[in-house]
Design goal:
The complex is a heterodimer of chains A (107) and B (116).
Chain A (H helix, E strand, L loop, with lengths): L3 E4 L2 E4 L5 E7 L7 E6 L6 E5 L3 E2 L7 E6 L2 E6 L9 E6 L11 E5 L1
Parallel strand pairs in A: 2-10
Antiparallel strand pairs in A: 1-3, 3-8, 4-5, 4-9, 5-6, 7-8, 9-10
Chain B lengths: L2 E4 L3 E3 L5 E8 L8 E6 L5 E7 L6 E3 L8 E5 L4 E6 L8 E7 L11 E5 L2
Parallel strand pairs in B: 2-10
Antiparallel strand pairs in B: 1-3, 3-8, 4-5, 4-9, 5-6, 7-8, 9-10
The chains are: A mainly beta (107), B mainly beta (116).
Chain lengths: 107, 116
């Protein structure tokens, strides 16, 4: 299986902060990397697909970059509604594995 | 409008069997794979497997192979996840999702509680 490792596991930030989450794959996955946001009691929501493509309807403050084994999700100016859990997922090869998640909390 | 609607919450005893469902609408059901994702209480997302409803080709995560069965009935546009003998450790929220190389559409989740 391809292992996905996110860092940090959690972070505290303030409204307006720039936030970066990193996801590393145990082997090259080209650009087959997606980012999801999940709020308590809700299904995950797709933010970024194919490493850097913004899903329709997602605010432009979210961006993704990277290829190969290292990827980042950046929130350019954190908003109150962005406090949530974030997961990366590789879809290069089955099983399509998720990272362990990053919890973004209010500082 | 694309929708995935999952069956309701279940409370079962260890050793019992269970089949939960995910009904797709608003798109061609046989054109997209459907996947299942487990989320244990307070934990992260775990990919379980996917099925192609068109030909029933199924791929499982090794962690779930032999533990669950994924199936689909294209005549009723519904995918299923089933257990033959539940364990307490199967207590979790289970999500279905349209699964191409990314999952833009998700079901609302089915909470399965296994307790004696």
């Amino acid at each position: 299986d391809i292992q996905m490792t996110q860092s940090p596991s959690s972070l505290s930030a303030s409204v307006g902060d720039r936030v970066t989450i990193t996801c590393r794959a145990s082997q090259s996955i080209s650009s087959y990397l997606n980012w999801y946001q999940q709020k308590p009691g809700k299904a995950p929501k797709l933010l970024i697909y194919a490493a850097s493509s913004l899903q329709s309807g997602v605010p432009s403050r979210f961006s993704g970059s990277g290829s190969g084994t290292e990827f980042t999700l950046t929130i350019s100016s954190l908003q109150p509604e962005d406090f949530a859990n974030y997961y990366c997922q590789q879809t290069y090869r089955t099983p399509w594995t998720f990272g362990q998640g990053t919890k973004v909390e209010i500082e | 409008e694309v929708q995935l609607v999952q069956s309701g919450a279940e409370v079962k005893k260890p050793g019992e069997s269970l089949k939960i469902s995910c009904k797709g609408s608003g798109y061609s059901f046989t054109s997209f794979w459907i996947g299942w994702v487990r989320q244990m209480p307070g934990k992260g997302l775990e990919w379980m497997g996917i099925i192609n409803p068109g030909d029933s080709d199924t791929r499982y995560s090794p962690s779930f192979q032999g533990q669950v069965t994924i199936s689909a009935d294209k005549s009723i546009s519904t995918a299923f996840l089933q257990w033959s003998s539940l364990k307490a450790s199967d207590t979790a929220m289970y999500y279905c999702a349209l699964s191409g190389t990314y999952s833009a559409y998700w079901g609302q989740g089915t909470l399965v509680t296994v307790s004696s």
